[in-house]
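My current task is to audit a protein record that another person submitted. What it holds is a sequence and that sequence's fold in token form. Thanks in advance; the entry in question is below.
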Amino acid sequence: MAPRIPPECQPQAASGPTWRIPSRSNCCLIGKTHEMKVDTVSSLLVADIGGTNARLGLAQKRAGGGFAIGAQHTLKCSDFASPAALVEAYLNRLAGGAQGKQTPRYASLAVAGPVKNNIIDMTNHAWRCSGDELCRLLGFDLVKVLNDWAAMAYAAPFLGRDDTETLYQAQPEPGGVFALMGPGTGFGASALKPVGGGYEILPSEGGHVAFAPGNMQELALLKLLLQEREYVSVEDLLSGAGLVNIYRGLATLAGRPAEPKQPSDISAAALAGSDPACVETLTLFCNVLGAVAGDKALDYYASGGVFIGGGIVPRFADFLKQTDFLARFQNKGVMQQLMAQIPIHLIKTDNAALIGCAAWLQTSIEQQAAID
């Protein structure tokens, strides 16, 4: 019989999901089904390391299912020469606080970039090292590394009802694939595929696929960006820097000067309605996101649902609903009827990648214990 995940830990779009232990391959995280044990480890160090900031915390498995994340700190990646220095700084903070007696023995790091053979090779930061090396430097028993959006996918069975918001309600297909994606410093994507009694995690570098314009304005914007670079990816529009690219591009196309602005300036002015150019920029951003999310849903055949996360979109869910996000998501030619059957959810919690790290690490520990 397949192991049972408590109802409060089940993804809203699924029914009766089970858990599958990760294998030693990070390309396709799959293994035999195994019942998770409570309190196998008192606390796990988990980290979500992006191109700009890193969020670290201690995870503990709740008796009723899921994970609680405490002792959280956010550190700037640029302040540290290596991941080891980053983790050491976090441990020093713990040593000076109430968690000083709970120094963890195990760690899992979600990083923004491809992961192979437990090796960190970050896309937006010049860090490269292995989990085994970090284990030796930090004196841990085990350090595991996975792609940040693979961690987001792993979190799906453990997200609570308050962790997500439904943007579009539809009946998911039982056993259907979940697609997860979202913009932040870059653009990440992954998928969660039910297989037998568990899941297969499919990491990707979907933010680096070519941007495909959906109308004449976006085509003009693409031509403009191609004057600056040889290749225009989805991430060149759907990211913090991408928001600035859109703002500058629309200004050039309109024949007006583009004032120097940070991504936060653009989104703030758009949400306040104080700058029409910023409103236009954020609207186009949301529309392109809808088109790209629909493309990913088709790529993965995500009949189980689409989850939008990342560090940008959850801040303006109400604005998103007023754009053509949904229309662009569903406007896929002969596949439009299929697209109308796919539910769309917004991941609201900041802890999704940390929860995914904890779940993956706990099962890795148990797998290793079973081998030993």
